[in-house]
């Protein structure tokens, strides 16, 4: 008969719990959760179930393009609303490829506004409509005036229902934009059901891969704040236009400038 090894783990002492409680104040991560036997204690278990429910709700929450367009008025002379080839939310979730393609009538809506632009901003619900409804306007309110003041030719804003990141490639191609910024709701996590991402691509085309994009992730007050996200976005766009590339070949050094208090930082607010 083999002897069972005695576990070296010991129950936490009150002093240990106080130390972990202090660390929990600094992060939303689930660390040192209390247990009852082999299971989580009731409190942490209920917190986990609530966070999971919020993440699921965020994925299925309806998108209101009209309401978002109303909030964005004043940032652009023209705001266009189109759909992807995914006709409804269920099809969008089951068929990611449809979210990357334009709806049958989308090109007809875009074409009358085609021209020569430096950048087009695309806003789409992705996997969290709540994220773009909450965070898109504050970020663009910093970024668009800054770029316009530098003489950038900005295409009409485009809002897309049921879109994936790559749908921005098709939109930029139709409108004639050298670069595209796609603001999209990221996959909800257990601590962030409303995180927004920004994907930047230089001269996108149908064959563009994710390796040719730059990403600013976790845009929200608890992550990358609006002014900092706008600063990083504008900095990357300038670098893309100067070097005529994007993605893994273009290093994002904006954090160094932010820490250094660069005078070209986006206005606070």
Strand content: 15-25%
Span between termini: 70 Å
Overall 3D shape? globular
- In the CATH classification, which architecture applies? 3-Layer(aba) Sandwich
CATH topology: Rossmann fold
Note the run of SSEs as H and E: HEEHHEHHEHEHEEEHH
Please count the beta strands (DSSP E, at least 2 residues each): 8
The helicity comes to: 25-40%
Contiguous low-pLDDT stretches (5 residues minimum) are 262-269
Enumerate the strands of the largest sheet in spatial order, edge to edge or round the barrel. 3-5-4-6-7-8
Radius of gyration, whole Å:
22 Å
How many domains in all? 1
**In terms of structural class, how would the helical and strand content be classed?**
alpha/beta
CATH class group: Alpha Beta
Layout: helices, strands, pairs:
Elements: H1 14-24, E1 35-36, E2 39-40, H2 42-60, H3 65-72, E3 79-83, H4 89-94, H5 106-110, E4 117-124, H6 129-149, E5 157-161, H7 167-175, E6 177-185, E7 196-202, E8 213-219, H8 226-243, H9 254-259
Helix pairs in contact: 3-6, 6-8
Descriptive account of the structure:
This protein has 269 residues and is an alpha/beta fold. The protein has a single domain, classed as Rossmann fold. Helices cover 38% and strands 17% of the residues. A six-stranded mixed β-sheet has the order 3-5-4-6-7-8, sandwiched between helices. Strands 1-2 form a two-stranded antiparallel sheet.
